[in-house]
Amino acid sequence: MIAYIISGGNFGNCVDYVTRRSLEEKLNGEQSKRQKSDERKWESNSGADIIDHLSKDWQLLAATADMRIYEGRKAMADDIARPTRRRKPIKDPVGHISLDFHPKDAPRMADDLMAEIAQEYMTQMGLTDTPYIVVRHNDKAHPHCHIVFSRVDNAGKILTQTTNFKKNERVCKALNKKYGLNIGKSKLNTDVSKLRGKEKVRYQLVRDIAAIYLSSSVSDWRAFVDLLRKNGITVREKIGKSGRVNLYYGIGKHEFWYKKLDPFFSRENIEQKFKARREKQQAPKAQSQPSAQPQQQPQSQTKPQQPKPIVIPPLPDTVYGFKIDSFRQRDYQEGKFISIGICEPGGVVPINHWIWFDFDKGKPVMSSTYPIDHKIPETFLQQLAAKQSASSPSPGGGIRFSSPSLVGNVPEEQGFAHGGGVSDDFKHFLELHPGMSIEEAWHRFCDQQKAKQRNKGPKLH
User: Fold this and answer.
1) Within a 13 Å sphere around the CA of 112, how many CA atoms are in the beta-carbon half?
2) Per-residue pLDDT, 51
3) What pLDDT score was predicted for residue 44?
4) Residue 288 C-alpha from the chain's centroid
5) Alpha helix (H) ranges present in 295-392?
6) 417 to each of 356, 398, 422, 450, how far by Cα in Å?
7) Considering the entire predicted model, what is its pTM?
8) Is the pLDDT of residue 410 over 60?
9) Is residue 252 a contact partner of residue 331, using CB atoms and an 8 Å limit?
């Protein structure tokens, strides 16, 4: 399950959207012209027309006790808006949250369970003491529902939780774990043909921005903005009252704050991704540049050519926001595949991806599918074995290091150069401090171990 936080300025329009008013009017045909008189009639017939509606496209799952659900859409919208009249008007007083569940959860997602999860979500988010309705939609493959509520509670206080996207992420993770739910579908997978009005524009805009971001020809912010504008998408930065710079994307007459599209689309985040992309693109080029070679000798004096060694360039320090540690870097450069967790746009829980070096293409490859067919060439395995053999300790005593960063005189301390070899802890320390000489690293390591012993305190007998 994932939750999309939306907000708006008109309670009537939001209630009409979640209860499919336009679809009802279409199905009622000639009765659509008498919609206003029909709503007055609903007040006297116990609301049969709105509860037992024609489309079967939606259903009311839950509502606060004081909601006039039997008097039509206008009455419900008026009841939800009631707390906003206790204070000065605010911008976007309508709270609107969409809870999207994975298609795999559809068989067990009964109405009562969905209503329970929706109400618990509101409680954990702190959206309490405010009128609301929960409406389920049946127009898509994945189960989902909409919560419409007032962003002003019954005491006249503004509910700021609707802008707390980090809290929304934590609450979704907790509910997924509690109810054993799968991660809901991303906006990128939403069928926009079934949406209407501003919602359809918003979801389509997310897909268009994501497609341009993923374009291999774009590697910096300026090129990204230029390509967006060529495709009719405007980008505008505006300084808010707090002094922070807010980013807005727009198309046509509609404009959206980036967080209402997807928090991934912040300028800071996208520029970081572009930086990582440039580093990744430049790494293979740096390795492939030929070094200065001496003039070739006459053919009669040339030695037989040795097979060219296979070099796997290191990965960037971060890949799509995931930090590549030294252990993953080592495994990758030994030809193995490594796993990382990446959140898709709009996602909450990271999805496992695998990265490996494609020896045929000569470049790294990433996929969310387990690389069952990945094979390491025999020549590379032989090359790796020869390298490891050359860096192993020699029988005559002493230790040889193959890494250039470890070149230096080996200290004489007992248990290190002339003792039982290098401990695993010290090897790990060396990997974390590649720029240090052996002497400096050893002294720093010993000081660190002594400090740990002092922190343990006296032993109790």
Assistant:
1) 0
2) 47
3) 52
4) 33
5) 326-333, 378-391
6) 36, 6, 8, 20
7) 0.43
8) no
9) no
